[in-house]
Design brief:
CATH superfamily of one domain: YVTN repeat-like/Quinoprotein amine dehydrogenase
Number of helices: 0
Shape: globular
Distance between the termini: 46 Å
Radius of gyration: 20 Å
Number of strands: 30
Order of helices and strands: EEEEEEEEEEEEEEEEEEEEEEEEEEEEEE
CATH class of one domain: Mainly Beta
Helix content: under 10%
CATH topology of one domain: Methylamine Dehydrogenase, Chain H
Structural class: mainly beta
Largest sheet: 8 strands, antiparallel
Oligomer: single chain
């Protein structure tokens, strides 16, 4: 039976008295679509009408119509073992699904929902990107000497090129630059390769980011801004990482650290790159908030209340820059908050407020 949850926000301002208002938010106050499974990635079609979620708990992808006032689930498509990463073709007609529990990439026709499979030569693809007729995926191993980033020909299935790095992927869809967040050799680094015909060329490397053990949560290419990396772990002084990293896409120089206040689980940006959004791992005294940052000042711009805990890697922004979509767990159907307790996630839609609506940095 669904347990009703009430989120309570108490606003404490300078000079507040005991008559200061208390605001109560129930689950009904949020724009939610109940899914109830382990959602680990979200993408949205270029027309902004269809959201697609990777449901690794049920070996499927979920299609959701988000064009109207109410989100409507339209299809559950079985794709294969443990889908953990999603990528859409530039025209939005084809969905590529990394199946980390197999040696395949599922290919889904967005219009017909028909599924085919691209065979790989290794098991457990971690992430997937597509550039024209090239498919790029990563294979991460317990021993970093076996890490691989591989590029295949989508038509022939031929392995074209391989690099000894692996982790989260990001792609510059214009210049064909491939970015890999790699945790080889006891250090986390960002690498850049260029798709040069049938070869992944170059080997540009950032300075060290963090040390083991780490979890690679998200990596995003933001046009006009840089490469955003979100990971869990500690810095070189043993302190918990509570910020996301921004790197220059040309030389991989560190540009900024976004102060998320807790481990960043996921990152997304508006299409023009002016705003960046992060899912924090921990709630503050008033709840869990998606945090919006300015791409020039790197300051926090807005806070958006979520209905509960947020999922790793599962945040996206629609093409018009109007809504944020996140996978959120309100804890109503969980017996506890321990790992492997069956935490289940739903989809929340949040409207993005115009710049300056809440001038939080004016003080």
């Amino acid at each position: 039976m669904l347990k009703k949850i009430t989120l309570i926000i108490l606003l404490l301002l300078p000079g507040c008295t005991e008559k200061s208002p208390t605001y109560y938010y129930t689950i009904e106050n949020f724009d939610l679509l109940r899914i109830g499974s382990n959602l680990v990635d979200l993408v949205i079609t270029p027309d902004g009408n269809t959201l697609i979620a990777a449901d690794s708990g049920n070996n499927r992808v979920i299609f959701v119509d988000v064009s109207g006032e109410t989100m409507i689930r339209t299809a559950n498509i079985l794709v294969g073992s443990t889908p953990t990463s999603l990528c859409l073709s530039d025209d939005g007609n084809t969905l590529y699904v990394g199946l980390s529990g197999s040696s395949q990439i599922a290919i889904v026709d967005v219009a017909t929902r028909e599924v085919t499979h691209f065979q790989l030569d290794e098991d457990g693809p971690m992430d997937v990107e597509v550039f024209g007729d090239k498919l790029i995926t990563t294979f991460i191993s317990d021993q970093s000497i076996y890490h691989k980033t591989k590029m295949y020909d989508l038509q022939s299935g031929e392995l074209l090129s391989s690099k000894s790095k692996a982790g989260k992927l990001a792609l510059d869809p214009v210049d064909g630059a491939v970015y890999v967040l790699d945790d080889s050799f006891e250090r986390v680094n960002l690498y850049k390769f260029i798709i040069d015909g049938d070869v992944l060329s170059g080997n540009l490397q950032s300075s060290d980011i963090a040390q083991h053990p780490v979890e690679l949560n998200d990596l995003e290419y933001v046009p006009g801004t840089g490469i955003v990396a979100a990971l869990s772990g500690t810095d070189f002084e043993g302190h918990e990482l509570k910020h996301a990293f921004l790197f220059d896409p040309e030389e991989l120089n560190l540009l900024a650290q976004f102060d998320v206040k807790s481990t960043p689980l996921a990152a997304a940006a508006t299409p023009d790159g002016t705003s960046l959004f992060f899912s924090p791992s921990k709630a503050d005294g008033a709840g869990t908030f998606v945090i919006e940052f300015d791409n020039e000042t790197y300051l926090q711009r807005n806070y958006y209340l979520a209905a509960g805990k947020l999922s790793t890697g599962a945040i996206t922004v629609d093409p018009s820059g109007t809504y944020i979509f996140v996978a959120v767990d309100d804890l109503a159907d969980n017996s506890n908050d321990e790992p492997y307790s069956g935490n289940s996630f739903d989809i929340q839609r949040i409207k993005i407020e115009p710049i300056g609506t809440y001038p939080i940095n004016d003080f």
